[in-house]
Amino acid sequence: MTRIDRRMTILTSAIYLVEYLGRYDLAAAKIAMYDTFGGNAKALLGLALTLMAISYGFGQIVMGFVGDRVPPRYVVFAGLLGAGACNIAVGCATSLPLICVAWFLNGVCKAMIWPSLVRQMTCDMTDNGFQKGIVWVSIASNVGIVLIYLAVVPASIHLLSWRLAFWFSGAVEVAAGVAWVLLVRTIPSVGLLKTALRAHPETADGEEKKKPSAWPIILAAGLPLLYIVVVAHGLLRDGVTSWMPDLLQNEFGLSDIAAIMSSAILPVFSTVCVIIAGMVYMKLKNELTSSAIFWGVVLVSLGCLIFTLGRSAVLTIILLALTMSGVQAINHILTTRVPHRFASAGIVSTVAGLLNSATYVGVAVSGYGVAVYSSTFGWRATVIAWFCVAAVGTLALVFCFTRWKRFISNQ
Predict the structure, then answer these.
(1) Are the CB atoms for 140 and 10 separated by under 8 Å?
(2) pLDDT digits over 255-296, tens only?
(3) Which member of 80, 119, 289, 393 has the lowest number of beta carbons within 10 Å of its beta carbon?
(4) Is 343 helix (H, G, I), strand (E, B) or coil?
(5) pLDDT at 135 over 50
(6) How many CB atoms lie within 10 A of CB 162?
């Protein structure tokens, strides 16, 4: 990696880690918030997670389009400042409706960050630097989840209350936004996207070449069907991460802090799996074939959990960790590496926003849906539903193979 590659990797990884602190603090702290708000707090906090998923998912489409037209320096800065303010507001909130509104706005602000971050990396980094750096960005997101579940939320509950976790996350996001806007402008744009656009800047008669339309390229690559795959993985990712503390508490009677801290094993496993996913991709050079391997891991893990749930807390945690590892590997391949394929068309941010929006369609379903479904039918039925979702995602991925192979062979 070049010096610029390393600098961009460190900067974007730090930004994404901080962004995850302010995204998963509600999921981690919600079981400690039940006592504060009582009554139907579980359902309303699940609704807050769903509202964020809706605003984030829709916002990804809009901000993906914006990110290809507005400098990432300003888009990411605005997103971090807004998200920080929303987290601080939740820390001060005295009613659940206010939390729902703040978390909806948090989703809008966070939608600004990922598409523009990918565009900045694509513009400023070499191809080799991007392929290596994006692994570290994915690892940084898992580190953020570890910190939330293992340190920030438990420490906040122990020292003061769950409110401290939101104040801390909000303050860090604001500081990260200031650091981003000050540092990113010093990085020159010499990367793949600008190189590709400079390669054929004019037509034969000297006129400026018209930028190709995005939608024919998106359809040719089979992204509408791939959208279903990403929706399925998003439902599983949020369903396992956000609701594992509740599952462990209900099935095995763990305390609030013990249930929260046990969830920290998920991103630890996921970090290892992201590294493996990067190695598998570099070997196969095909995003869909690589992700199919990890769908297999998810299906096997959930299949085993259906028959073993309730027997052992340790075994349950391990199987959920393996499930989450496979899901995070799929997330790494489909939402971080697939957009890079569209660099020469100049729609990296658009595709990144589109695919990330699909993730949060799934998150929107799981946020409120898992709360209601698990309360009505129990956790074993919920695990069976997760298995069915994984089967649908795997099947949709298989149907994408031919079109995707044709698309990457024509690049």
Answers:
(1) no
(2) 666 666 666 676 677 778 788 888 888 888 888 999 999 999
(3) 289
(4) coil
(5) yes
(6) 22
Answer yes or no: is pLDDT of 350 > 50: yes
Whether 191 contacts 130, CB under 8 Å? yes
Residue 75 lies in a domain: yes
What pLDDT is stored for residue 84 in this prediction?
95
- What per-residue string of b and e applies to 259-296 under the rule 16 or more CB within 10 Å gives b? bbbbbbbbbbbbbebbbbbbebbeeeebbbbbbbbbbe
DSSP state of 211: P
Q: According to the model, what pLDDT value does residue 197 have?
A: 42
Measured between alpha carbons, how far is 342 from 121 in angstroms, rounded to an integer? Answer: 13
Number of domains in the chain: 1
**CB 330, CB 233: distance < 8 Å:** yes
- DSSP structural state of residue 95: S
pLDDT attached to residue 263: 64
Using CA atoms, how far apart are residues 343 and 166, in angstroms rounded to an integer?
36
d(C-alpha 305, C-alpha 318), whole Å: 10
Question: Whole-angstrom Cα distance, residue 111 to residue 67?
Answer: 10
| Dist. CA 181–CA 175, nearest whole Å | 10
Give bridge partners of residue 202 from the DSSP assignment.
208
Write down the pLDDT at residue 214. 64
- pLDDT higher than 80, residue 68: no
267 contacts: CB under 8 Å, gap ≥ 6: 141, 142, 143, 144, 145, 146, 149, 324, 328
Please report whether residue 197 resides in a domain: no
Nearest-angstrom CA–CA distance, 301 and 297: 6
Mean pLDDT rounded to a whole number for the chain: 82
Left, alpha or beta for 346 (phi > 0: left; psi -120 to 50: alpha)? Answer: left
Question: So what's the pLDDT on residue 209?
Answer: 47
H/E stretch holding 4 reads helix 3-37
- 323: domain CATH number is 1.20.1250.20
**Which range of residues forms the domain containing residue 383?**
3-191+215-409
Say how far apart CA 348 and CA 340 lie, in whole Å: 6
Of 59, 60, 47, whose CA–CA distance to 98 is shortest? 47
3-state secondary structure of 204: coil
| CA 299 to chain CA centroid, nearest Å | 20
Cβ count near 56 (within 10 Å): 29
Query: Any idea what DSSP says for residue 208?
Result: B
Establish if 205 belongs to a structural domain: no
Mean pLDDT of 172-201: 65
